[in-house]
Amino acid sequence: MFTCRMPATVCYGENAMDQLPKLCKGAKTVAVFSDRGIEASGILRKPLEILANAGIAYQLLLDLPAEPTCDQAQQTAEAFRKLEAEAIVAIGGGSVMDIAKLCAITADGLCTVRELIDNPALGHKSMITVMIPTTAGTGAEATPNAIVAVPEKELKVGIVSEEMIPDSVILDGEMIRNLPSKIAAATGVDALCHAIECYTSKAATPFSDMYALEALKLIFPNIQSACMDPDALQSKNAMLLAAFYGGVAIACSGTTAVHALSYPLGGKYHIPHGAANAMMLMPVMRFNLPACSEAFARVYDALGETGAANEEEKAMRLLDRMEEIVHNLEIPVDLKSYGVTNDDLEDLVTAGMQVQRLLKNNLRPVTADDARSLYMQRLP
């Protein structure tokens, strides 16, 4: 049996933001989760005006950290409970949406974020949640996941609970029009990782295959223009949809060794999640080639590519194209540029091998020696 859970309502396209009051389901007061950078950019102006014009009062939670720790998420949850809001509207990237989702399932005060790490079933959503992504990559608007860092373990972990799947999503290309190219690139490659990992996951289902493949068909032709050209609104909308599809694919199956080995890079060295995934993407994909050649070839065909003579050549050309994307987007893939040295290697291996929740999805088994070799490729 296969299941597929996703937000009940997705608004996409011109004037999608106008649906925001309706999606709040009669709430008279909402908590708007965002951050100071988004506020300064002016992105909040339109959705806040729409809420105000509909007679919906809002209270802002803007001091949300990027790449939050579990304790920072808990502090926000405690501040949120004091607001006594009836619904949540999250406007931001993955970290903002993840914190908002955690607040929604801890609003009753019956569990803490730290307790959810060990037992996600403790959380229960008690209010409507609406997600409005301001990046095109994390897919957090569609997933049952929230990523937090655990400081004493120097590791990021994923809390997974179907209770965190948002009720509604608004995908509006205007929200990412002026996103800095560096952030757009890292989050865009995150979406690429979600799609290709889910498509090649041991846990893949017909649902995840469908959404992952559709995401890839949108990502390959659009990611570079969406990241580099502020006026490429069509490409930006395509990437928003691709990121959402990638999130649905995660909810249906799960990511693999790319994400597993990237978590220690964020937890200890505070490398942004998308950039960490970009670092590990090609080492893991080339490592997986013997087990994933057929799947890679299917993606090559689905993209409408021609010229490759056989499955092996199709797979290799697809991986070359992925590597070209990471290179053209100018995402640093040298771990030493973030202060990681060879002396850190064993700690990385130990931490990465703890993420068995994702490593078990990898079609080619990953040993500690394999993980060491994969990290070393980014420690020239």
Key descriptive features of the protein:
380 residues; alpha/beta; Rossmann fold; 15 helices; single chain; 8 strands; 6-stranded parallel sheet; Dehydroquinate synthase-like, alpha domain; two-stranded antiparallel ribbon
Concise summary:
The chain is α/β, with parallel strands linked by helices.
Number of domains: 2
The assigned structural class equals: alpha/beta
Q: Regions with pLDDT < 50 over 5+ consecutive residues?
A: none
How much is the radius of gyration in Å?
20 Å
Structure description:
The chain is α/β, with parallel strands linked by helices. It folds into two domains: 168 residues, Rossmann fold; 196 residues, Up-down Bundle (Dehydroquinate synthase-like, alpha domain). The chain is 52% helix and 11% strand. Helix 7 crosses helix 11. The longest helix is centred in the C-terminal third of the chain and has 30 residues. The termini are far apart.
What is the element layout, followed by pairings?
Elements: E1 9-12, H1 20-23, E2 29-33, H2 36-41, H3 45-53, E3 57-61, H4 70-83, E4 87-92, H5 94-106, H6 113-118, E5 128-133, E6 145-150, E7 155-160, E8 168-171, H7 181-199, H8 206-228, H9 233-252, H10 257-269, H11 273-302, H12 311-328, H13 345-353, H14 356-359, H15 368-376
Parallel strand pairs: 1-8, 2-3, 2-4, 4-5, 5-8
Antiparallel strand pairs: 6-7
Helix pairs in contact: 4-5, 7-8, 7-9, 7-11, 8-9, 10-11, 10-13, 11-12, 13-15
